[in-house]
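I had to read the description of the data format several times before I understood it. For illustration, here is how one protein appears when written out as sequence plus structure tokens:
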Amino acid sequence: MKIAGAAMLLAASLAGITAPATAHADCGDPDQPACTGPVPAVDQVAAIMDRLTDPNVPAPDKSDIVTPAFTDNEFRKVDCMAQHHLSAPWIITDIQSAPNNFAGATVAVPSRWRSPRPGPIVLVDQGGHWMMTHRSAMATLDNFYNDAIPLRALPWCWM
């Protein structure tokens, strides 16, 4: 990123063009108003989490809730992690709007379950359909897989 910025400055100075520095702030940034865009309902987030962790839904079929979809190389790992997730009711809190049709939420399971600490997820509204970002889905699966199962019981779900 720094190299690209330096290259643009160098090209502008060589061309004799000086461009004023511009700053961009999004809603929710310091000194900016809170974001007020759309957010998913709690039941929509719970449905995404249920489908993501459902061992009966193969990874290729989860492309309706994850964007971009899992790759062919990730299918085995995603299916393996889902096979070892214990079904639990989701606790979804802190749903907040973010710029560019994104939203965030915190997901946890009840403390009586052996489970990881609450974690953030990122969702994106694509034409009225809420989906979890790929990075967020992989991080969530890793979080539940690595923290929720006793180490001695872990199968190796590596790619």
Q: What stands out?
A: The longest helix spans residues 134-148. Residues 1-19 have pLDDT under 50 and may be disordered. Residues 30-153 form a domain with the Nuclear Transport Factor 2; Chain: A, fold (CATH 3.10.450).
